[in-house]
Target: Elongation factor 4
Amino acid sequence: MELIRNFSIIAHVDHGKSTLADRLLEYTGSVSRRELKDQMLDTLEIERERGITIKLQAVKMFYRAEDGNTYTLHLIDTPGHVDFSYEVSRALAACEGAILLVDATQGIEAQTVANFWKAVEQDLVILPVINKIDLPSADPERVKKQIEDILGLPSEDVLLISAKEGIGIKQVLEAIVKRIPPPKGNAQAPLKALIFDSYYDPYRGAVAFVRVFDGEVKPGMRIRLFSTGKEFEVTEVGAQTPKMTKFEKLSAGEVGYIAASIKDVRDIKIGDTITDAKNPASSPVPGFRPAKPMVYAGIYPSEGYTYEELRDALEKYSINDAAIQYEPETSPALGLGFRVGFLGLLHMEIVQERLEREYGVSIITTAPSVVYRVRLKNGEIKEIRNPSELPENWGYIDAIEEPFVLITIITPKDYVGNIMSLCQEKRGIQKKFVYLDPNTVMLEYEMPLSEVIMDFHDKIKGVSKGYASYDYEFLGFREEDLVKLNVFINNEPVDALSFIVHRDKAYRRARQLVEKLKEVIPRQLFEVKVQAGIGNKIIASERIPPLRANVTAKCYGGDITRKKKLLEKQKEGKKRLKQFGKVELPQEAFLTVLKVE
Ligand code: GTP
Model:
């Protein structure tokens, strides 16, 4: 165990994590240059295209150090997006150290700070490394000072490298073996292995990536999962070198994979502990939390695809993604579909894209919404994933709570004014305002997640010309003055169009909504009243004037084929309409509303 080092690279997006990982592999002779081209650590097609690392993986390398010893290095990859912050924390829990990589031209960004604190929480030894020193605009002195002032890491410990040019790579490897401590653990104790990632392999079944803390695991052994008590027999253990390579066993201190003919990835929960079924450990690795979707949206088949096709695609997709949850849902406008829970917006985009691209169904996704917690007067707590699930009688409700996040923003000082107004508009509560250096400011706000998922990303990039970066973490549910906005068409409530909104914003949203609806609802033979209200109290109203008479009236009796055509058209239009009271709403009406800003 003395010769093992377990570490991660933590960095803001694009600061060079994958490039450095490739260099380390190359330097330790783990993979050929040709293979490197495929960017070993990013396996999924979409990840490569977006340049985002989503799946965690762990690579074993062997490094012959200056002291003459050959060390086993396990590099554990961490996902680089805020949706996966729990997964990041579990990957870090598997390590003793982390390389904190900062771009020499950009300096510290929001994700750098967020990840730094996660590493500190896990008591990791942190090696600060400044990357991209080859660039003419690199300012390593400024970044060193930031690292010292903001993160409190002494500037003499900072390494300067260029992952692209291969400068300073050996120093990084030496620092890993000299400064990061070897793992502790007891190889004789009962098995205790932390799951930090999983994936579905058509040959091996669901595979768990683990860090073994105590004991050992080998094929033939019966293992048990702590959170569920489920048992399986190990068929294979091994590690990525970076190819999947079988080993005889994994022992205390080591990192690798376990396969046990597990059919469902849902049985391998990230953060859970694997132990020996015959001789179980007395307690699990602390910190387990079941995956919990924070954002929900409806997914429906587009025209030309069926509900069954969508169901099959979702089933297949979810074999590989234990984090999504879905259940059937019917919408009066969109028909049969699913309510799907995601970890966040990026996760949602990934699912959407993969369903369409890899599973061949074309889909309609409704606007995402957060989970609300409703406290009823009888003491019951209900989780609401769809506003239509709110109790009919408002009198039963004691309070509605919504998820809040702590958002950290780093920006050049010129945009601070814009960003503060944006955050205020988004119901943010300022918690911190500090200068990181004379030109850079860090802000912290507590903010409702619903405001973040709406359009925060585009807006903050817009008001800062793309320079501000942000990251957030979940704080908890908070009671807010939330109301249900109901929509009425000719006095009939249309439940599918209702949503939950803060009282202060209800008027504006109600106005926008009725105006949009007025645009998309076709004129009828009678006047249509479109209204929005809190409960039954109407706060915005529009009227759609009636069509004067039959559309053919304009034809002055003339051309009969033309008349026919118009009538045909009218019929066709009707097919796509849904009846509401006497009024028929086109699918478009629902979509514009469900996608309303
Ligand atoms: P994510 O996977 O999106 O988190 O990004 P990453 O942090 O893995 O960054 P990646 O390694 O993909 O590098 C981002 C960009 O920076 C790429 O275009 C790299 O070629 C470039 N890059 C990385 N290291 C260096 C460096 O040392 N010098 C220069 N000039 N460019 C670099």
Summary: Residues 60 and 228 are 30 Å apart (CA to CA). The two ends are 55 Å apart (CA to CA).
